[in-house]
Amino acid sequence: MSDAFLACLKTPPYFWIGPEVTRLFAAGQCPFLSNDQLKTANSVGGLSVVTWLSLLNRAEIQRFEVQKLAMGAYRSMLRGYRLKEIIGQATVPEELLAAFHSGGLLLGPEGLPRKDAPESADKVAFKPHVITMSRNLVPHYHTWTSLMFVYQEPILGFARSEQRLLDAALLGVTDEELATELKISLSAVKKTWRSIYSRANRSSSGILPGTLESRTDSSDRGKGKKHRILTYVREHPEELRPVCLKLLRQPHIPAPRVRVPRKRSPFREN
Which element (helix H / strand E) includes 89? Predict the structure, then answer.
């Protein structure tokens, strides 16, 4: 989401995210980053993620295994992005407490994060509120969700077409199935694989050791390359996220802060 929307969201009086996003869309003021903006933010500074939480049944959210599965899936969606802040709202009291115990902080009426648990989850969850977790606060909280802010820069710099193929290939499909899924020819799939191998060979990552190239069976060699590449990107999801390596590797000078005027939403509550 845009920094302007985030600043508005975190400033009292708080409002419900869904209705406000709907209002902005209707007014032609999209609060989401474009593909180019997302790529730039993921290369410089980081991304702000705004989420309505899991929407799980109240009885189910209390089960530890359900919480673990839901948060694990959420973390998998965000792994590999350069995150600076995660903002959300709970839909039921149990979800609010689960978010707090996972490292989230509730913003108080003055707009500052509170380190203590909410006095009454029932009262807080059913009125507009804001739960935040930011990169700056991670060193003070040792929860597994803080791992979402751990970021490693990509080193291969795959093209977007290569990323799409690798992302689909992680499901274990054949080249023929990749062609169908990506709506490209089989020859285009093979050409993209060659481009991926060439990029990996040019890097100093050591993903494709020279011993693979010396094998006489081209079929085995191809399977070995593919396995190593897929194993690497599965462990390094940052390689599949939109990024501009040129921006990523240049010294960054923070942009000056700009005050964005706010318009009061009809969905806000005092």
Answer: strand 83-89
pTM of the shown model: 0.81
Beta strand pairing call for 131-134 and 105-107: antiparallel
Q: Return the closest-CA partner of residue 156 out of 36, 237, 221, 83.
A: 237
14 and 270 Cβ atoms separated by less than 8 Å: no
In terms of Cα–Cα distance, which of 52, 49, 43 is closest to 70? 52
Radius of gyration of the chain (CA): 22
Q: What is the longest distance spanned by two Cα atoms in the chain?
A: 73
**Where are the chain's structural domains?**
3-149, 160-240
- Phi, psi dihedrals of residue 244, rounded to the nearest 5°: -110, 110
**Are the CB atoms for 169 and 230 separated by under 8 Å?**
yes
Which two tokens mark 40? Answer: 């730039």
Check if the beta carbon of residue 9 is closer than 8 Å to that of residue 17.
yes
Using DSSP's 3-state secondary structure scheme, residue 13 falls into: coil
**CA 11, chain centre distance (Å):** 23
What is the full per-residue pLDDT of the chain (270 aa) written as tens digits?
A: 999 999 999 999 999 999 999 999 999 999 999 999 999 999 998 999 998 766 677 778 778 888 788 778 888 899 999 999 999 998 888 888 888 887 888 999 899 888 777 778 888 888 999 999 888 776 555 666 677 888 899 999 999 999 999 999 999 999 999 999 999 999 999 999 999 999 999 887 778 866 444 444 555 567 889 999 999 999 999 999 999 988 887 765 454 443 434 444 444 444
